[in-house]
Amino acid sequence: MILDFFKTAANLKKISRQGWIDKLSIDNPESVADHSYSMAMISMVISDLENYNSEKILKMVLLHDLAESKIGDFTPEQKNKENKIKLENTAFNEIIEYLPESIKNEYLEIWNEYQENTSPESKIIHQIDKLEMALQAKIYQNEGHSNEKLESFFESAKKGITNPKLKELFTKIVNDL
Q1: How confident is the model at residue 54 (pLDDT cuts 50, 70, 90)?
Q2: Which of 42, 75, 104, 140 keeps 20 to 30 A from 131, CA to CA?
């Protein structure tokens, strides 16, 4: 049963980030696993600097896109938020169904907390998600992809980041990298 969980999680390496395909026509964009790893690195550092619960933060990052291993990565243009949340919740529950109760319940709590976006940890993770997207957009920009096509990614990140430390990092990403 645990091996099924691992296999499902490993599938994230095969799921491409759909926004890069749709808006930039990238043939081989980053995977959801690439994105999650980058978010984990950013989150670890920010969590340690800002005195968050790093273990909880990292678990939340690793779980936040896990449902996409079953349903794929949808952009807001493909699925409205309500439908996406329903699909993700169903998939997440299926993924953790056979885990031991002791961790299954903890992962479900963390998942729900992320989905509800009400705790300090979930709020910072949603912002780090935007920051990581901006970092990847800047990497693609430096590789020669269209500034015009990338602008919506930078604008989305700018609107979604309110934490002062993350705002500062966003400004450095956009201006200095």
Answers
A1: very high
A2: 104
